[in-house]
Amino acid sequence: SAPAHDFHAFTPVSAAVQREIEPVGPHFLAHARRKRYKRTFSEDERI
Amino acid sequence: MSDSEDAAPRVAIGITFGNSYSSISHTTVEGRAEVIANEEGDRQIPSILSYIDGEEFQGTQAKAQLVRNAKNTVAYWRDFLGKSFESVDPTPCHQSAHPIAHDKTVAFSIHDSESEEPNNVTVSEITTRHLRRLKDSASDFLGKQVTAAVMTVPTNFAEVQKDALREAAQNAGIEVLQFINEPVAALLAYDARPEAKLADKIVVVADLGGTRSDVAVIASRGGVYTLLATSHDWEVSGSKLDEALMDHFAKEFRKKYNTAGDPRKDERSLAKLRLESEAVKKALSLGSTASFSVESLSAGIDFTATITRTRFELLARAHFAAITRLIQSTVEKAGLDPLDVSEIVLCGGTSHVPRVATSLQSAFPEKTVVWAPATRTDAINPSELVARGAAIQASLVADFDQEDIRESCHPVVTVTPHLKDAIGVLAVSGDERGHGKFVPIVLASTSVPVRRTAIINGPPAGGDVLIKICEGSKRIHVEHKEKKEREPVEADSDDSDAELSEDEEPIKSEVWHTERVIAEAALRGVAKGAKIEVQINVGPDTGLTIVAREVGGKASVRGSVPAYEES
């Protein structure tokens, strides 16, 4: 991997806005599954 | 009821229950969503019930009874469910059974049995009877007993209305698996097409119905939908187009037979006029001329006339403009510009009217795709969209436990942080002379966690590359064409002023503005003309992980940015 000085973090992204996503469609169901089992994207793909 | 559930497998369909029409739908074994035709061959089944000597009629048969048996015909009651009499607008029911107050709810006083005395039948009971008939039609078609459904509702349907609908459905033997919002169902129907590509886009769904129109602005991010703004309008609707035709034909009739009365003044004549005008409107969506013909319209006189589509478009011009305005104002409500809108999905029966779609197309930028039969040959039938979406969702959740569905729809799952601004890279290479150009990778209003990857061009000469990860926002750049041939004079008449402003219509374009630099990454010794892949991972707390690497090369850099914390 690259040396640490090749990456500099300056500031976090702006505060997020809380909104409601629609519980509809295959991609939502995948989101709900990940959220309920607290999985990341790559963990979810492996299963 | 859950005790007996374990034995038989669940058979789930999609049900769209509207004030004017209802539809039933299922997905085929190949996974295609289909709208089911009832015994009469109707896919759009009028939401109307009528009684003669205790016999019940529904759908098209009941609709025909609006002329001869209006008092025992119930129509346009969906929006009354779960509401008190004081809070409903009974206007659409003027020509059928009138709603009355009954306990805390709304009822209709109708002769629904053979007895002389009318019964007070609540809207809940009417709904149950209607849904039972829909369920039976679907069961007959599928050859197995339907037990469950996903039902669609408008976005402003309150919890009490959903509870009332759930109960009415339960009484009809239907387990409601989930209520989904109508505009989202319509969008799902488009996204479920095999040829559809997942994209990040802003979609406006305009559901143009018979008695109301509903508009929703939706951020579609990789197939996950977020409602940004909604509007509901009971003045802008298909019935207004019918009324424009009714007035026209009533005037024509009076011109021809000036001794006969106004057909709009007699209830039965008015009902005939309304039914035939709706039929003429539908015919004008398909052909360029249509004929209006009613036997014994008024004073025993048969009346026949023809009308062209052009004439109709002139008569209803104000209503078309109102539809366009409603959609434009909802985009504004979402804090967006028409340039931000990638697609407009038209659904609901009124979307068949060609002028509705063409006026919208000219009011929005050319690149905005308007999904309607008049503007796209590959558009899906707008009357079927919502029902198809319901069928798709039904097939997705049919095997889930009721508990699982409830938990997935819980705010703990659905309320998520959405990015305020877009995140992307500022590509600084030779040809952009230091300023760089912002390339968005994750758009604003995307829910997190999210992962997106983009390929950007490295410098043509190769060498070291600085990748700036930035937040960016879209601005609308307005360019006024400078045409100073003559000074605008205040004494000018209104007419020439209008002409002048039309000449000088500003040219708008979208420009990305870099808000701030989040992080910098350096890739060293990149090959000549290399492509660079940048992956941005936004965690559930909006913390970032960034990976940049040369496509096909060995060089790669990785780093993370912690999440924003309220101090």
From TrEMBL, chain B:
Signal peptide: none annotated. The keyword Nucleotide-binding applies. The keyword ATP-binding applies. Residues 490-505 have a biased composition (Acidic residues). InterPro entries: ATPase_NBD (IPR043129), Heat_shock_70_CS (IPR018181), Hsp_70_fam (IPR013126). PROSITE patterns: HSP70_3. GO terms for cellular component: cytosol; nucleus. It comes from the Eukaryota. Keywords: ATP-binding, Nucleotide-binding, Stress response. Residues 479-489 have a biased composition (Basic and acidic residues). Pfam families: HSP70. Gene3D superfamilies: 3.30.30.30, 3.30.420.40, Actin, Chain A, domain 4. GO terms for molecular function: ATP binding; ATP-dependent protein folding chaperone. Residues 479-507 are annotated as: Disordered. This is Heat shock protein-like protein 70. It comes from Trichodelitschia bisporula.
